[in-house]
């Protein structure tokens, strides 16, 4: 069994290799002293066999040093790529940690006021909120989940909102999932949350939210449409949307399209993911 070469041994080997690189200079210098000439031909007058061995040795040395240089370059590139991947993962974890926290805070505040008024409804809300939080914490930290799991999460979110509000909301949810792709979790919830936050919450009546999700072999289409109060200025650069855009850049670079359209009092967002 060969023992693993230590870093100190590698350093010694490298020093020897560097030192041998000066041998031609030393040989040439000795030749000049012996012959008394101002210039000489390297290895001139040496035994042909010895000269050939020295020549082959230096070819081997040059190839070896080039190889070591190539290995060093590959290691440096690999180290840079690994560092960038770690930075990407760290940033994604930070972005995931910021997904809809204020929704949970608002729901807890609503539950606090609802408990003495309607305990049964409060219990139902607590169970659904628990399911949402469980998904956000455990499934949300995974790199990928199935599209059907994500759709179930969105439906649970909508059901929770139906129980929360004391007004009629026209909600449509259309799904046509032909391919159960694996995707990054919590991508669509930000857009759905914005539809309730900027639309439903500010409208006393005739509020609507329309959701459509379609998947085929290569793409996923997700659309959210809601009406809003035109007297209230709409945020276009909210933290949630900024986080979503950055997440898409990190996870689906050049494989996504995020489109927002405003037509009178209707706000529409469409997210397209190209998965192949």
Short overview:
The chain is α+β, with helices and mostly antiparallel strands.
Structural features, described:
- This protein has helices at 7-20, 23-35, 48-96, 101-114, 119-139, 147-164, 189-198, 239-251, and strands spanning 145-146, 169-177, 182-183, 207-215, 219-227, 256-263, 266-274.
- It contains 8 helices and 7 strands, in the order H-H-H-H-H-E-H-E-E-H-E-E-H-E-E.
- The protein folds into 2 domains: 7-95; 97-274, Heat Shock Protein 90.
- The longest helix is centred in the first third of the chain and has 49 residues, at 48-96.
- The mean pLDDT is 78.
- The strands form 2 sheets. The chain has a 5-stranded mixed beta sheet with strand order 2-4-5-7-6, covered by helices on one side. It has a two-stranded antiparallel sheet with strand order 1-3.
Tell me the layout of helices and strands:
Blueprint: H1 7-20, H2 23-35, H3 48-96, H4 101-114, H5 119-139, E1 145-146, H6 147-164, E2 169-177, E3 182-183, H7 189-198, E4 207-215, E5 219-227, H8 239-251, E6 256-263, E7 266-274
Parallel strand pairs: 2-4
Antiparallel strand pairs: 1-3, 4-5, 5-7, 6-7
């Amino acid at each position: 069994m060969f023992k693993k070469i230590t870093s100190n041994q590698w350093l010694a080997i490298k020093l020897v290799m560097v030192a041998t690189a000066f041998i031609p200079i030393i040989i040439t210098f000795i030749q000049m002293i012996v012959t008394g000439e101002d210039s000489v031909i390297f290895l001139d007058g040496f035994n042909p066999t010895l000269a050939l061995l020295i020549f082959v040795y230096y070819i081997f040395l040059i190839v070896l040093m080039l190889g070591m240089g190539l290995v060093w370059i590959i290691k440096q590139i690999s180290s840079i790529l690994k560092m960038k991947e770690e930075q990407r993962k760290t940033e994604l974890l930070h972005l995931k940690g910021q997904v809809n926290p204020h929704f949970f805070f608002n729901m807890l505040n609503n539950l606090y006021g609802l408990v003495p008024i309607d305990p049964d409804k409060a219990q139902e809300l607590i169970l659904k909120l628990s399911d949402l939080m469980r998904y956000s914490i455990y499934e949300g930290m995974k790199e990928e989940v199935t599209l059907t799991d994500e759709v179930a999460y969105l439906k649970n979110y909508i059901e929770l909102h139906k129980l929360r509000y004391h007004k009629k909301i026209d909600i449509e949810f259309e799904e046509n999932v032909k391919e159960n792709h694996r995707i990054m979790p919590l991508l669509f919830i930000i857009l759905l949350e914005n539809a309730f936050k900027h639309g439903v919450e500010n409208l006393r009546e005739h509020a609507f939210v329309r959701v459509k999700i379609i998947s085929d072999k290569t793409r996923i289409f997700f659309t959210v449409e809601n009406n809003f109060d035109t007297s209230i200025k709409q945020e276009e650069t909210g933290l949630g949307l900024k986080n979503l855009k950055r997440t898409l850049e990190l996870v689906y670079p050049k494989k996504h399209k995020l489109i927002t359209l405003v037509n009178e009092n209707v706000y529409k967002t469409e997210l397209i993911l190209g998965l192949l």
